[in-house]
Amino acid sequence: MQTCETLINLKGIRFSYEASKPVLNGVNLLLKKGDRVGLTGANGSGKTTLLMVLVGLVKPTEGTVEIFGRQRTKERDFKEIREKIGFLFQNPDDQLFCPTVIEDVAFGPLNLGMSRKEAIEIADRVLSELGLSHLRERGSHRLSGGEKRLVSLATVLAMNPKILLLDEPVAGLDEETTATVTEILERLPQERIVVAHDKEFLKRVTNQLFSIRKGVITPLGELENLAEREKSPILRPEGRAE
Amino acid sequence: MHGEEFSKGDSFIHRLDPRFKIVLFLAFALTVALSRRVETASMAFLISLILLISARLEISLVFKRLLFANFFVAFLWLFLPFSYEGQPLFSVLGFNATEKGLKESLLITLKCNAILVATFSLLATVPLVELGYSFSSLGFPKKLVHLFFFVVRYVFLLHEEYLRLHSAMRVRCFKPRSNLHTYRTLAFLAGMLLVRSFERAERIFAAMKCRAFKGEFYILKELKAKKSDALFATVFLLLILLLGFLECKHAKLL
Predict the structure, then answer these.
(1) Model-level ipTM above the cut of 0.90
(2) Interface residues on A facing B, Cβ-Cβ cutoff 8 A
(3) Which of A94, A209, B62, B209 could cross-link with A38 by S-S, CB 3.0 to 4.6 Å?
(4) Which residue of chain B comes nearest to A138, CA vs CA?
(5) What's the whole-model pTM score?
(6) Which residues of A touch B213 (CB under 8 A)?
(7) Over 70: is that where the pLDDT of B2 sits?
């Protein structure tokens, strides 16, 4: 029963760019149906690397990657799952490479074997859902930072992914765009792993919080508890007077 | 860096089908490049000027660009007039300038400027992305077209990166001088750009793989030709033929 509810199961993942400094040192992570995992950690702590492991862009030296109930090792296994996992890159400039926005959003669906007409329909629908229809014909290099991020999200959503992997989706965005992205992510139904530094943001778009430190993942507790703790008088100086 | 200064405008030249402009430009440039007569070259220059006026481009910018290119042409004028044998017209420091030499210099200057001005008015009035679409629609090899699109997309980023690094150097009081420190620093800058673009290429490829890239790109845009395109093409082709006629008459081929 439990296996069919498990979407991602990482066991003992180890990886290092340099032999002396392991980035991931035995990471275990479980993503079940309905899970929305938030992941924080210092710069260079391996958050992005972990996401890369999940889609097979980085091959771990040790450990097993199990996704949708099957162990994934070869490039071919990952090709299959990349169609079902939407990965939002940290830098939208890496993600948007087509001449115009509509082509970029339609790129994924076309790769999935849809006809031009279907792909354009899907792309237009996603763009309008995200309120980006006016950017349709714009060249990717003519977008503002916020627009780039939203269009990147559109390119990911156009593939109708089962799971979202979001690498710092609101880093470097202004308040308004952050609010827009937050609202969109709250509304989306997908299970997800979100890497971010902003805990307020994570509280809204995820329901569990983990931290990665020295190559291992430790839970920061259910977010409700976290919120409770933050309400406690000890942590709030102005409450101490009572 | 902008690279698309001339593509914004609403003249009838701007509204022409870019594919027609590319093909006509190539025909024009080839004809001009092959011409050997000052008359033909002057005529071609005149045609390109008419194009320029019809495209209503910002003249100061056109002038600036031309000045830059003619800087190299100026060197020709230093040497070419004195490089041919014949009746000397005048002499400088014992070197004789001949009529043939002067004509040759004038010919090259006219040809060069005619092609340049035609480039501004025909090619540069097409936004880069549409230029790519046209290449694809004209049946250019797929790989070249995609290469072109990637260059358009990332050359701006590379330039931004360069500007960032350059400002970072300047805020730390870097002043280029003719010394080893300068050369080393500039080499660092170039090396850093190379490394960064390599890393970026890897990240882009990763992102493409994540979106199920299977080695195929898709171009969605379809271009449609209008009546005005056909009309312009006819007139322009006639003009090119006229150039050819002028040229051949001289060569006594007709």
Answers:
(1) no
(2) 52, 55, 57, 79, 82-83, 85-87, 89, 91, 93-100, 102-103, 106-108, 110-112, 116, 119-120, 139-141, 155-156, 159
(3) A209
(4) B129
(5) 0.73
(6) 107, 111
(7) no
